[in-house]
Amino acid sequence: MPYTLLVPSCTDSSLKSKCALAVMAKAPRPGKVKTRLSPPLTLEQSAALNVCFLRDTTQNIAEVAGTNQAAGLISYTPVGDESLFDGLLPEDFALVAQRGEGFGERLLAAAEDILLCGFGAVCLIDSDSPTVPAEAFRQAVEELNRPGDRIVLGASNDGGYYLIGLKAPHPEPFANIHWSTSTVYAETVSAITSAGIELVELPLWYDVDDGETLNLLRDELLGEIPPPFTRMPGYSAPHSRRFLLDLFGAGK
């Protein structure tokens, strides 16, 4: 059965008490996703691993949403490829189309559209961090459910971020940011601070987008070696672990 497709022009007031946990995702076509992982992986393997990341991230979110005032979504691109998500997501997930040109424009538009759907808050989450601790998602929901305005931000160790959460579509965090650089997080924090908006920072984590970070994931899931920058246990990511086990075997 296809997932519900949300339309921003159709506001559902019953969603006001919920925080949307929305994964920003491309439809998983070989050659279109996780291309920086090839090499060491083939384009087909990279796309297959991307599917594992989607399965793990959405499963993690579904478990958090089941015990919090939250709901899981996929903010997807391109329009027309909705069917490529069939069977990959928990059954209660919904889809909402991305719009905009540059990355910052797409993030702001996603926040605007999801809030227009009726949600009281939204977290935009990357699809490259399958082992983000569930506690980080729970903390984001709890902070955004408190009275008053604020932005929640989860830093990645490469200088970017894996999550940004908002209660209102503030444009400042998405304007004049040098995307895909090691200064994204610092620039975003500066923009939020300059705008006078309260900032809550989540635990540091990491994205998997090249051979080096793939090794970090391999160490975490197969070698049970936590990332060196945290003592917090990550999510078990069973789909990604099974993929890596089939690819590399049990040894490090």
Structural commentary:
- InterPro entries: Nucleotide-diphossugar_trans, Trfase_1_rSAM/seldom-assoc.
- The protein is α/β, with parallel strands linked by helices and 252 residues long.
- It has one domain: Spore Coat Polysaccharide Biosynthesis Protein SpsA, Chain A (Alpha-Beta Complex), CATH 3.90.550.10.
- The protein is built from six helices and eight strands.
- The chain has helices at 43-65, 103-116, 134-145, 184-194, 211-222, 238-248; strands spanning 4-5, 19-26, 70-77, 94-97, 121-125, 151-156, 161-166, 199-205.
- It has an eight-stranded mixed sheet with strand order 1-4-3-2-5-7-6-8, sandwiched between helices.
- α1 links the parallel β2 and β3 (70-77).
- It starts with a strand and ends with a helix.
- The model has no long low-confidence stretch (mean pLDDT 95).
Could you list some keywords that capture this structure?
252 residues; alpha/beta; Spore Coat Polysaccharide Biosynthesis Protein SpsA, Chain A; eight-stranded mixed sheet; 8 strands; globular; Trfase_1_rSAM/seldom-assoc; Glycosyltransferase
Structural class: alpha/beta
Q: Which regions are unreliable across 5 or more consecutive residues at pLDDT < 50?
A: none
Element order, helices and strands? EEHEEHEHEEHEHH
What name does the CATH topology carry? Spore Coat Polysaccharide Biosynthesis Protein SpsA, Chain A
Sheet with the most strands: spatial strand order = 1-4-3-2-5-7-6-8
Note the gap between the termini. Answer: 39 Å
Supply Rg: 17 Å
| Proportion of residues in helical segments | 25-40%
Strand content: 15-25%
The CATH architecture assignment turns out to be: Alpha-Beta Complex
- Relevant CATH superfamily: Spore Coat Polysaccharide Biosynthesis Protein SpsA, Chain A
Instruction: Give a count of the beta strands, DSSP E runs of length 2 or more.
Output: 8
Mean pLDDT: 95
Number of domains: 1
Count every helix, treating DSSP H or I runs of 4 or more residues as helices: 6
CATH class: Alpha Beta
Shape: globular
Instruction: Describe the sheet with the most strands.
Output: 8 strands, mixed
Protein name: Glycosyltransferase
InterPro entries: Nucleotide-diphossugar_trans, Trfase_1_rSAM/seldom-assoc
